[in-house]
Amino acid sequence: MKAIIIDDEKHVRDGLLLLGEWDRFGIHEIFEAKDGEEAKTLILEQRPEIIFTDMNMPKLDGIQLLKWLHDKEINSKTIVVSGYDDFHYMRNAITYGSFDYILKPIEPDVLNETLERATKEWKKQALMRESTLENTRVMNEIKPLYWDHLFTGIMNKPTIPSDAKEKIQKEFGINITEVQCTITLLSINSIISRYFEGDKDLAFFSMLNICNEIVWSNRNGFCFRNVNKEDEIVILLWTHKNQFDLLEKVQISISKYCHIKLTMAVGKPSQQLHETYQSALQTMLKYNIVEANKKKIVSYQDISSSPLLHILDYTQEIMWALQSGSIEQMDDVLNRIFHSLQSTHILSFEQIQVWENQFELLRKNWLKEYNINEQISQYNGKDYWKDDGSFSYEKFREEKRKEFHELIHSLYKVKYQKEKNSIQEIESFLRNNYERDIPLQEIADRFYLSREYISRKFKAEYNETITNYLTNIRIEKAKELLENPHLKIYEISFKVGYQNEKYFSKVFKKAVGLSPNEYRVSMMSK
């Protein structure tokens, strides 16, 4: 806590500093001022909880200071210290809310007893102020949430409960069941990450304030957050006069605030709240996103039925591209899909949802097929928007390509590792069985792979055919055995897998440049 002592006589200030048991009452900073004028600056800067002031001072006396404190609504506990036992001073001290009035000469017991009561009273009132402020803050936060939940609940039901109708009547002065309403939907997904850095609550708070400043302030309706959706603001209008002008004003206000124009989907007017909401929802799902870049307010009258493109129809082609590991082959498939999407379909939110759901199903099945942990982070492309909030078909294409490219990389990496492990196991098998004939079919049967596949992959991994690789193993082993002078050539031939000594000698000389005997002599002469 802080205190200030205001008196034009320094010895009085020194006396108070000396007599007060400041530490006992939690007061650790004490300021001094020689008159009211000087004190005003310190009080505004330091905000002391306790103020001691003389009454008879130059420039600005105690009465004027008390009046200033009262006008400024400063909640400090003010203790008047005066040598004038005069009712005039006491009356003003009471009038302007001083905590107590003590006379000079100051007695230590009186000073500290007054100081104790003042600090206790300050702490008590501070707690009450904090509690009041907290209650007000909580209520201000809860109230919008309350209406978000109430309106979300009733717009999804065919009938409105009587208690909800009464609450709306009391708060908004409108009988919601007797007026024709129109619901307009606003998706803020494109600005949550771009403008609000992913802070969804801040985005909703800001956007709803902008919307209601125009809609509710004119008593035309109310804007709220659909608590069942991640990014949906609902504009409920119960006054239809110039409603499109009103929506345009909301749009312009949002554009001024975050430099983004968001598309609004307007439902069909109805006395049934759930009917106008379902109409707005269909508008939001089915309108042509690309065309909406030109027209930012779309109505239920603007939508037309169009067949949806299903990427599951391309499952076989996608599978071949994934198995090939070829980005070029995958891009060929995607180009055909994109061409079909542009030429014979409408790109809508519904179409995007169908694409995303079906891709997720494909990806999940392929990850399972390759025994890849589904928890591994996979790229999810959702950024389809330009800086001004309009939809970008080019960015949509790029995001979808990235998803397929990452999937093909993930699968190919696992496939390559599995293939590499299989070929390494075959190489190990050859080293452990070089002393006998090993037909390629035996290897194929053992490792459940085709002979053609084994031949191709083995050569790619070791730069040798299996036959040549096995011959090299045998020759290296024969060299080791030839260092033993007690072994006959035919014995060595048999041990390294050759039943015919002459054939062994021929193969050995071709590989080494010396016959087995010549090689042995050369090794012994070293």
UniProtKB/TrEMBL annotation:
<dbReference type="InterPro" id="IPR051552">
    <property type="entry name" value="HptR"/>
</dbReference>
<keyword id="KW-0963">Cytoplasm</keyword>
<keyword id="KW-0805">Transcription regulation</keyword>
<dbReference type="InterPro" id="IPR001789">
    <property type="entry name" value="Sig_transdc_resp-reg_receiver"/>
</dbReference>
<keyword id="KW-0902">Two-component regulatory system</keyword>
<dbReference type="InterPro" id="IPR011006">
    <property type="entry name" value="CheY-like_superfamily"/>
</dbReference>
<feature type="domain" description="HTH araC/xylS-type">
    <location>
        <begin position="424"/>
        <end position="522"/>
    </location>
</feature>
<dbReference type="Pfam" id="PF12833">
    <property type="entry name" value="HTH_18"/>
</dbReference>
<keyword id="KW-0597">Phosphoprotein</keyword>
<dbReference type="InterPro" id="IPR018062">
    <property type="entry name" value="HTH_AraC-typ_CS"/>
</dbReference>
<dbReference type="InterPro" id="IPR018060">
    <property type="entry name" value="HTH_AraC"/>
</dbReference>
<protein>
    <submittedName>
        <fullName>Response regulator</fullName>
    </submittedName>
</protein>
<keyword id="KW-0238">DNA-binding</keyword>
<feature type="modified residue" description="4-aspartylphosphate">
    <location>
        <position position="54"/>
    </location>
</feature>
<dbReference type="Pfam" id="PF00072">
    <property type="entry name" value="Response_reg"/>
</dbReference>
<dbReference type="InterPro" id="IPR009057">
    <property type="entry name" value="Homeodomain-like_sf"/>
</dbReference>
<feature type="domain" description="Response regulatory">
    <location>
        <begin position="2"/>
        <end position="119"/>
    </location>
</feature>
<dbReference type="InterPro" id="IPR020449">
    <property type="entry name" value="Tscrpt_reg_AraC-type_HTH"/>
</dbReference>
<keyword id="KW-0804">Transcription</keyword>
